[in-house]
Amino acid sequence: ALRMLFKMPSSCLKAGDPHPGQPYKGGKFYAFLPDNRDGQKTVMLLKKAFEHGLTFQIKSCNGEERVTWGLIPHKTSWDGGKARNGYPDRQYLGELCQVL
Q1: 23-24 and 11-12 as β-strands: parallel, antiparallel, unpaired?
Q2: pTM of the prediction?
Q3: Would you say 28 and 45 are in contact if contact means Cβ atoms under 8 Å apart?
Q4: Was domain 25-99 assigned CATH 3.30.390.130?
Q5: Per-residue pLDDT of the chain (100 residues; tens, 9 = 90+)
Q6: Domain spans, the chain
Q7: Where is the Deltex C-terminal domain (predicted)?
Q8: 42, 97 in Cβ contact below 8 A?
């Protein structure tokens, strides 16, 4: 399995954001892909999406701004099935590539 780690630091919202200067909380985010040809190709697409700022967003949770996953679906567990953002999920790579 391929395991990706995203370390998003805490910071402050910038000019142009809804609440400039307001702090937000970062975090560590893990995502998983199968270690095969399709998984390797998908990693490259996910890397481009990350570089373009499409992977994460900042949302308000319980009165606190924090980094959360964006609209690109990620598998955050290696098991548990689709209901728990895990595998097995036969449609995942196809659906992910359509989004990307």
Answers
A1: antiparallel
A2: 0.86
A3: no
A4: yes
A5: 899 999 999 999 888 887 789 899 999 999 999 999 999 999 999 999 999 999 999 998 888 999 999 999 999 999 999 999 999 999 999 999 899 9
A6: 25-99
A7: 4-96
A8: yes
